[in-house]
Amino acid sequence: MSFDPTFAERRFGYGLSPVVAPVASVTAMLDGVAGQDTMRARYPLPPYRHLREQLVRNRRFRQYARENPDTEEGKAAEQKVKALRREMRLDRLAWFGHSMLRRINTPAAFHERLAAFWADHFTTIGKAGLTVGAPPLYVEEAVRPFIAGRFSDLLISAVTHPLMLHYLDQNISAGENSPAAQRPGRKRGLNENLAREVLELHTLGVEGPYDQADVRAFANLLTGLGGTRDFGFRFRKNMVEPGSKTVLGVTYPHTGTIEPIHRALKDLAVHPATARHLARKLAVHFVSDAPPDALVDHVASAYLSSGGELMATYEALLDHSAAWQPEAVNIRPPLEFISTALRSLAVPDATFAALRPRDLNTLFLKPLRVMGFEYQRPGGPDGWPEEDDAWVTPQGVAARLEWAVNAPVRLLSELPDPRDYVVKALGEVVPPELDFAVGAAENRAVAIGLVLASPAMQRR
Amino acid sequence: MSAKFTRRGVLQRAGIIGCSLAASPLVTPVAFAQAPWDMRLVVIILRGGMDGLDVVRPVGDPAFAALRPGMDLSDGIDLDGYFALHPALRDLMPLWQAGELGFMHAVSTPYRDKRSHFDGQDMLEAGTEVLDSGVRDGWLNRMLQQVPGLEAETAYAIGTTEVRVLDGEAPVANWTPEAKLGLSPQALRLAELVMERDPALHAALAEAQMLSDAGLEGPRRGGAHLQIAQFAAARLRGASRVAAFSLGGWDTHRVQRRTLPRSLRALSQTLLGLRDGLGAEIWDKTAVLAMTEFGRTAAVNGTGGTDHGTGGAMLFAGGALRGGQVLGQWPGVAEAALYDRRDLMPTADVRAPAAWVMRAATGLDQATLERMIFPGLDMGRDPGIVL
Question: Looking at the complex, does the CB of residue A65 fall below 8 Å from at least one CB of chain B?
């Protein structure tokens, strides 16, 4: 099998929309990735700076309130802290809405899927109090703008972002012979966390040709990447381990600047093990948990021969016949499942504009949790599992069915006619048992829920 | 083709599906003979950092009262002349008197200094010696990995909060009472029909229906924690041997006299719910461990609460354990005895009592426990936690 518009939307996008035409060709799919980011312009997210400013305000008001208890000004500062918390809850809601509206309305769904893929590849978690909502802003700034360029640029951007440095403890890592570690009375030392994850997860892969000595040397090389107390970036010269470092046989001389770090990341980006690791990950994500070797080889060699150009890599993925194998085996993970449902229902902007913070929880975050997905809180830096077994659990399937029946009626002023809806949502021959179930359901909500819960919607 | 699917046909079909449920790959028949051991192990992760010093108060320590000005310490219930129990756990006193409730004080994971919930819980559940160990599975799962041929049914991760302590290669079942299917029987029959051609989805739905109906006899009452306790008890009465879930609400930075009792009452109700649900015979073979990522500061802070600390307390319960005692080596809370002059000094690794309980439950040897389950742990002397 080769390109087919309906199937392309199903496998490489968020399924069909009743209002957005399906993509016309592989070329159009690729153009949608390389071209202007219209969804970003239409549903913007603020820059990461926005959150940093909120953190600064929070710190200052709190400090003021602490230092001036029982005064009018102190109480006013306390009120400002409270107002800020509310503002941040509203931000979180708005950002969730915008990320869903992009998926609902985009004519370039492959682009959104790739953005989600790379956001997961470079997972961060806001692990300090108010940074809990930070990941979307990090993705918007450090991941999304780079997914149509060279992987090395994406790698450098993500790995050196302050949220990543904080998440994987790089900001506290000091070379053992650095001035910071030598200061008397300071317990500072090397932290290998980011170095290990870059090698294991972001580049070479766990099967890659590196050993503990490489991890250690790379950790020494990464010293200096640090943060400010308000989660900004700062290169800290006094934490840099002196001396040259040898990672995977390449020696990087000591300069006391970020330059050798960039060079090592560029070298890692074009390593054959990285090509294979990324190719396999793309094939697993878009095609099947057990992709054919020929597909992985094809994608990996396009990656290598282009010097890590991502557009050439995506093109190789899409021009291989195995990518179009007609059997849809991969299960959509929970957030993608919900996104697909919202797109098929063409949930309007107004619905999201009217949501209140507690609706976010009852309509989305809580059901996602029962499906096994804690929003913005994956279990670790390896992101969410790709294996279908992780999602096809009794609890997960029950939660999907319940959401499918109960949520749409709260998201639309009027549910569509299910017989019409099923055709628009699947755009192909409707399986006879589904056709029957839609007609036999006791009401519209159940009928639409059955379509959403059907294998044709849940798998891609 | 669609003519085949008449209403009547669907109802008949539903009967067939019902009968074939036992053959579903996800539904393991309940069979005691297959269970590798008989003891029931329940691990409760208390997320947020429980203040061990307020729950099991060292009122006999002359330095204690001065650390907690403004916190009423007079209402504690005497345990052993030295420690007093927080009054919100009053309902558990019969368990203490029956030797079915105990504590181990001044324990912690090997996690030190950064005092982050996130890292602390990671270490508690991974059971590792260091934070960036690269270990991604949980220690309870590694215990299961040591027993070949286990069924998923043997261990349950319960609730919507991810229970990483059970994450890993060994098969584990997951369920949360919140996933209870509320659809009408007709809608469920149609859902079965729609998923019929997809064996994995279909089997998962079939098991969801079974679990949705199981273990929740009578009216559903109380909060999520009670439903979890009821569900856990129902599974542990059957073929399951391990259950793990979390309870939150321990991060009591402010007005602890109001916030902590709420969480303690939920914990108390959970333990009593487990005991009642299990029945006397199974409760006698049960070990419950309730552990938290770290304790809290020895001194009260400026807002009537406590901040993230180090040493804390572990609670244990069940007929299989030797309750009625506060275990552990008490370090004292005089300023010089504190960790960093601020936190209760940990005098034991919280993984050690867990290892001793696992040894008793599963018969795993000490070397396996110290290398595979809790890498780097020295189990030390038997603390006498198991009967």
Answer: no
